[in-house]
Amino acid sequence: MKEILVQLEVLRYNPDTDTEAHFQRYELTCPEEWVVLDALNKVKADIDPTLNYRWSCHMAVCGSCGMMINGEPKLSCHAFLRDYEGVIRVEPLAHFPVERDLVTAPDDFMEKLKRVKPYIIPKEQKPISEGEYKQTPAQLMKFRQYSMCINCMLCYAACPEYGLTPSFIGPAALTLAHRYNIDSRDGGRKERQEVVATHEGVWECTFVGACSEVCPAHVDPASALQQMKITSSIDWIVEHLIPGGKS
Amino acid sequence: METITTDVAIIGAGGAGLRAAIALAETDPKLRIALISKVYPMRSHTCAAEGGAAGVIKPDDSFDMHFDDTVGGGDWLSDQDCVEYFIHEAPKELLQLEHWGCPWNREADGSVAVRPFGGMKKQRTWFAADKSGFHILHTLFQTSLQFPSITRYDEYYALDLLVDDGRCQGMTAMEMRSGELRQFHAKAVIIAGGGAGRMFPFSTNGAIKTGDGMAMAYRAGAPLKDMEFVQYHPTGLPNTGSLLTEACRGEGGILVNKHGRRYLADYGMGPETPVGQPQLKTMELGPRDRVSQAYWHELQKGNTVTTQWGECVLLDMRHLGEKKINERLPLVRELAQSYLGVDIVKDAVPIRPVVHYMMGGISTNTAAATPLPGLFAAGECACVSLNGANRLGSNSLVELLVFGRRAALSAIEHIRNLPTANTSALNARAAETQQRINELFSSNGTESMSGLRKEMMDTMEKNVGIYRTEEGLQEGVSKIHELRQRYQRVKLTDKSSVFNTDLFQALELGSMLDCAEAVTVGALARKESRGAHQRLDYVERDDKKFLCHTMVHHQGLDVPRVDYLDVVITKSPPGVRDYSGDHK
User: Fold this and answer.
1) Mean pLDDT across A157-180
2) Which has more pLDDT, B205 or A240?
3) In this structure, is residue B582 part of a structural domain?
C-alpha cells in the first residue's frame, strides 16, 4: 500500500484556555487510500491526544463527523486523501457554535427538527392487529429519497441563507417535514404548514442549491423545498383566489 | 453535584433505548423519562445495520419455523421460552414501526416485502433497501420527538450505577459539553448501551461501541452472560472492516476462493445451488458462524486470495445485474466503490470475516430484567438468550424493539410501591464516582492509552478469534488481566473540562478491558465447540457439560468468578444443525 505525506492544518479552540481559535499543523504519513478521518485518528492516537472531534461509523451513515475540509462541508470519513493536494485545512462545521476544536453545538438544528413534527400524524388511525397500511412501491418512491437524511448538518453549513438568517428552519428539517407530508400514511401537512410555510420556512430559501451539492446521502433538499413552495402556493391560491376555497 | 430526579433513566438512545422510552411514554404519560446517551440519538450504531429485521408475516411462514431456525442457529444455547416470546412479538413490533412511518420495501400490492437471510428457512426479513437499521433508528428517534415526557440528555457519558438497599436507583453521568458530573436518581434504570466490538482491531462496529453499559452493570454486580460468543460477520471490507450486508448473499451473491470454487460446499453447507438462485438455509445462506469458520479453513489450505489488504475470499455479485444491485444493494455498491475502489457490478469484491456482534452481555431474563433489582437491559448490551451461541442475521434489529419495549413494561411494574429512596446514601455513591474522576485527573499516569488499547486489540485478535485453543486463551486471559492492572496507571494527557475525548477514550478503554476479560475468561472455561465459540482442542459440542450459560461475576481487580446457569429447553432438544438444503 502506497504511503503518502499528509499535512493537516486543524482549527483548534479550547474554551478553558484559549481566547480565540488558532490553526495547528500536523504532518504524518498515511496510506494513500485513507480518508481525512483516518488521518485525524492517527494524530489523536500518536501525536496529539488533546485533539477533539466526533466520529463513529466510518461509513457515512451516522452523520457524526461533519467538518469543513478546505472550506467545504464534508463527512471526514468520506473525504479521501487522494482527492486533496498540499495542506488540508480542517475546520469545524460552519454556521454552528464551536464547543471545542472540531466539535460544534447542534442545538439549533435539533430544536428545528422537533418543530417540524417529523413523524407520522396518521390520516386514519388503525390498530396494529389490522396489519400494515398498504403503500405501493410508487408511493414509497415518492418520499424515500427524502427519508435518507442522516442529520449530518452539512447542508446547514453550506446554506448561505442559514448563515445570514439563523431563524431559517433550514434544508434538512424542512426536507423531513416534506418527507412526512408526501407519505401516503400521513395526514399532518396542515399542522406542519404553521412552521413550514412561513418566512422562517420554505420562503426563506432562495434556491441556491448548495444543500443538494454537499449532501452525502443524495437527499436533494433543494428539490424538496421547491416542491413545498409549489404546494404552499397552491394552498394560497385555493384560499384566496378560488371562490369558496377557504371553507 | 446537580441531582436530576426522574422515574426511569435509560442509558443509550439507539434502537433499544428509544423503543423503551416510547413504550414508557405511551404506557404512562405521567412518568418522567430521562434518555441519556453519549451521542445524539441518530449517531447510535443501530444506524449501521443494513440487511433487515425478521418477523413472521407471510402466509407460507410459521412461528414454529422461526423458532426452529433461531434455536438451531444458536446451536441450542438459546433459552426457548425467550425465543417463543420473541417470535410472537416480532411481527407486532415491525408493524408498529410501519405505522410510525418506517419506509419498508413493498410488494406491488402495497404489502410489506421480505427477503431471504442466512439461516432462515423462509423469507421473513423485512427491509428498507440496505439501510434497514438506519431507517429503524430515525423512525424511532423522530417518533420519540412527539412525547413531552421524554427528556433527552444528549452527549452525557454514563459512569456508574447507584445501588443502595440491594437495588439499582440511578446513575451518574458527565455532561460532555461542560465536564460536569450529574447524578440521576431514578426508580428504575434501563441499560441499552450497545455492544463492545471495538475491543477487537478489525470490526464493523463504530467507534462508540465500547461496552460502557455492559461494564457499568458488571461493576455494579450484575453478571455478564455468554460473553465468549463473538460473532464474525463473513463479509467485511478488508481495509476498513465496513459491513457488506448478508443481503448480498440473500439476493444471490456467491462466495468463491482463489480457484473460483464455491468453497462453502466443502464445509457442510453444500451441495452447490445454481448461481443466482439462492436457496434458503444452505450454501451462501448458511449461518454466519459456519460461513466465517469456512473462511478460516480456506486460509489454512492456502485457498485465499492475497490482496494488499491481506488474505481474502471473493464475494461475487456481478450476475445480479446493475438494476437489481441499485435497487436492493445501493449502499453496498457505494461502500465497495468508495472505500475499496471496486464496482460490484463489474468485479467480485475481496472480503474477509470481521467482528460484528456480541451474543453475550448483561444477563437478563425474558422480562428484560437483570438479577439486580431495578436494573433492566435490552439490545446488544444484554444477553436475554435469544441468540444463543450464534445470532441469525436480522434477529437483532427486532430484538431491540421487542426487548426495548419489554424492559419498559418491566420497569413500570418494578416502580410500583417502591420504598422511598435514601437520598443521602445515593449521594454518597455518587461521590464515589466524583472521587474516581478526580483521581484520574490528578494522577500522573504512565501508561499510554493508545498503547494499552492496541495491546488489548492485538491480544483479542490473536487469541480469541474464530478458532481458539487452550494455550492461546491462557495467554489471552493473563494478558488482559495484566492490562487491567496497568490501566490503573493510565495517562490522561488532556486535563480540560470541555468535550475532553482523551478522558472519554480512557473511560471507554476501561469498559472494554472489563468486557474483554469476561470474554477471555468465559472462552477459556468453555471446553467445547458451539456456535461462534470454536476450540481446536475441544472440537465437539458437549451437551453434558456445557448446555449452560457462562455467568461471569466482577471481582474488582481480581480475575472474575465464573459459574453457570442452565439453558431453558421447552420443546426442542439439542439436535444436529443441518445446512445441507435438505440433501443431508
Assistant:
1) 97
2) B205
3) no
Mutation target to probe the A interface, by most A beta carbons within 10 A, among B145, B180, B309, B448 is B145
Over its C-alpha atoms, chain B yields an Rg (Å, rounded) of: 23
- Chain centroid to Cα B504, Å, comes to 21
Q: What is the CATH number of the domain that holds B308?
A: 3.90.700.10
Taking the C-alpha atoms of residue B329 and residue B348, their distance in angstroms, rounded to an integer, is 14
Residue B317 and residue B183 in one domain: no
Cβ-based contacts under 8 A for chains A and B = 152
Q: What is the pLDDT of residue B432?
A: 97
**Which whole number is the average pLDDT over B103-109?**
97
Rounded Cα distance between B441 and B490, Å, is 10
What integer pLDDT is reported at residue A236 of this predicted model?
A: 81
Q: Which residue of B has its CA nearest to A58?
A: B206
CA distance B404 to B386: 14
Closest CA to B418 of B8, B2, B4, B1: B8
In angstroms, the CA B115 to CA B403 distance is 23
A46 chain-B contacts, CB cut-off 8 A? 450
Does residue B438 share a domain with residue B402?
no
CB B306 within 8 A of CB B350: no
Going by CATH, does the domain composed of A107-240 fall within 1.10.1060.10? yes
CATH number listed for the domain at residues A3-104: 3.10.20.30
ipTM of the complex model? 0.97
- Do residues B130 and B328 touch, judged by C-beta distance below 8 A? yes
Q: pTM for the complete prediction?
A: 0.97
Check residue B136 and give its pLDDT. Answer: 98
CB within 8 Å of B439: residues ≥ 6 apart: none
- Give A193-245 pLDDT, tens digit per residue: 999 998 899 999 988 899 999 999 999 999 999 999 999 888 888 888 877 76
What are the tens digits of pLDDT across the range A81-114? 999 999 999 999 999 999 999 999 999 999 999 9
Cβ pair B560, B267 in contact under 8 A: no
What pLDDT does A243 receive? 77
Residues B261, B405 within the same domain: no
Report the distance separating Cα B180 and Cα B170, nearest Å: 17
Pairing of strands A88-91, A3-12: parallel
Kindly report the CATH number assigned to the domain that includes residue B456: 1.20.58.100
Output the nine-digit C-alpha cell for B130: 440496505
Query: Can you say how many angstroms the Cα of residue B574 is from the centroid of all Cα atoms in its chain?
Result: 25
- Is B135's CB within 8 Å of A147's CB? yes
Instruction: Indicate the residue type of B288.
Output: R
Which residue, among B18, B42, B96, would best test binding to A if mutated, counting the most A CBs under 10 Å from its CB?
Answer: B42
Q: Which residue range forms the structural domain that includes residue B300? A: 236-354
Start-end of CATH 3.10.20.30 domains in chain A: 3-104
Total structural domains within chain B = 3
- B15-27 vs B132-144: helix crossing angle, rounded to 10: 30
> Measuring CA to CA, how many Å separate A34 from each of B20, B145, B209, B244?
38, 37, 22, 19
Check whether A247 has a pLDDT greater than 60.
Answer: no
Is residue B400 within 8 Å of residue B16, measured between CB atoms?
A: yes
Cα distance from B331 to chain A (closest Cα, Å)? 10
List pLDDT tens digits, range B345-382.
999 999 999 999 999 999 999 999 999 999 999 999 99
Q: What phi and psi values does residue B156 have, to the nearest 5 degrees?
A: -115, 125
Residues B45-62 pLDDT 10s:
999 999 999 999 999 999
CA atoms of A41 and A76, how far apart (whole Å): 11
Grid coordinates representing B576 are 444436529
Report pLDDT for A246: 53
Q: CA A211, CA A159: separation in Å to the nearest integer?
A: 6
Confidence of residue B584 (pLDDT cuts 50, 70, 90): low
Residue B234 has pLDDT above 70, yes or no: yes
